[in-house]
């Protein structure tokens, strides 16, 4: 029974990782982020906060890492700040990406 449960848990973790990667690929598209930066800049801001739509940690996803690298190469700063979900029973500590230019 234990090897079966262990394999099921691995599949669940893998499925969660795939879902996170998919969400991050949508949220951290470079062109969309640059457009959002332009909207904030037009208001006078030099900062953009990108918060996941649900309280899960996307900071270590491939899409997030690539976006942060591209922004830093262009001269922006990108930092992750921990956030607590409003309902601590329904989520995990997650991170908001703050981009400054």
Q: Care to describe what's here?
A:
The structure is a single chain. This protein is of the alpha+beta class and 101 residues long. It has one domain. The chain is 50% helix and 18% strand. It contains three helices and three strands, in the order H-H-E-H-E-E. Strands 1-3-2 form a three-stranded antiparallel sheet. The longest helix is centred in the N-terminal third of the chain and has 26 residues. The mean pLDDT is 94.
Outline:
The protein has 101 residues and is α+β, with helices and mostly antiparallel strands. 50% of the residues lie in helices and 18% in strands. The chain has helices at residues 2-27, 30-42, 62-73; strands spanning 47-50, 77-83, 94-100.
Low-confidence stretches: none
Tell me the number of helical segments per DSSP (H or I, 4 or more residues long). 3
Biggest sheet layout: 3 strands, antiparallel
Which radius of gyration do the C-alpha atoms yield? 16 Å
Number of domains: 1
Which percent range describes the beta-strand content?
15-25%
Strand order of the largest sheet: 1-3-2
Mean pLDDT: 94
**What best-fitting shape do the alpha-carbon axes yield?**
elongated
């Amino acid at each position: 029974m234990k090897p079966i449960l262990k394999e099921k848990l691995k599949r669940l973790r893998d499925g969660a990782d795939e879902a996170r990667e998919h969400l991050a690929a949508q949220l951290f598209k470079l062109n969309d982020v640059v457009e959002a930066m332009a909207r904030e800049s037009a208001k006078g801001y030099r900062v953009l906060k990108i918060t996941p739509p649900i309280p899960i940690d996307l900071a270590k996803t491939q899409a997030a890492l690539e976006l942060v690298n591209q922004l830093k190469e262009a001269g922006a700063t990108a930092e992750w700040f921990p956030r607590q979900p409003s309902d601590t029973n329904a989520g995990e500590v997650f991170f908001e990406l703050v981009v400054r230019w």
